[in-house]
Specification:
Helix content: 40-55%
Radius of gyration: 25 Å
Shape: rod-shaped
Distance between the termini: 13 Å
Number of strands: 4
């Protein structure tokens, strides 16, 4: 079920944001999000977020890129155009390593970029929905989705109990 409103509680320091996020998680709120102007260690644990898929995708594509680069070189030098140069074997793997490395890095880099664009939904030309310009400078915000008015009042009371005075309500 999709939430109808989003309550944003603005905070000044990352320590207060972490503390408020942990309190919200322990209080049983779901769908929490935390906005920050810079990465802060501990946000994932405070929000109980799952690990990202991006490193796994990068590892798989790194191995795939290395394998494809090796297979391409082996096929071109041993099958497509076999030429014996200086008595070396047709599939001379030490000579293939620079291209294998470059192929692995290229495919892993492209896959990381594309998966980040997909997971962040940050496609070119899309305007980001920024709740407040100060969130990109020096403020933090804890976002809690609300299903109805009663839920909205309960979340407001919770945020005020955490010492958050500035609360913004956004309609979805």
């Amino acid at each position: 079920m999709k939430a109808h409103k989003l309550l944003l509680g603005y905070l000044d320091t990352p320590e207060r944001a972490l503390e408020a996020a942990e309190k919200a998680r322990r209080a049983g709120f779901s769908g929490l999000d935390l906005f920050s102007p810079y990465p802060v260690h501990g946000f994932e644990a405070a929000l109980d977020l799952k690990p990202s898929w991006v490193p796994s995708i990068a590892k798989v594509m790194l191995i795939a890129g290395a394998g494809l680069a090796f297979l391409l070189q082996a096929w071109t030098s041993a099958v497509d155009w076999p030429i014996n140069v200086g008595g070396k074997p047709l599939v001379s793997w030490p000579a293939f390593m620079p291209v294998v490395f470059e192929g692995a890095v290229l495919l892993a880099g492209l896959a990381t970029f594309m998966s980040l664009m997909h997971f962040l939904r940050a496609w070119p030309g899309k305007r980001p929905a920024v709740a407040s310009r100060r969130l990109t400078v020096d403020r933090f915000a804890l976002a809690i989705p609300a299903m109805d008015e009663a839920d909205c009042e309960r979340i407001k009371d919770f945020l005020k109990g955490c010492g958050i005075d500035e609360i913004e309500i956004r309609e979805n």
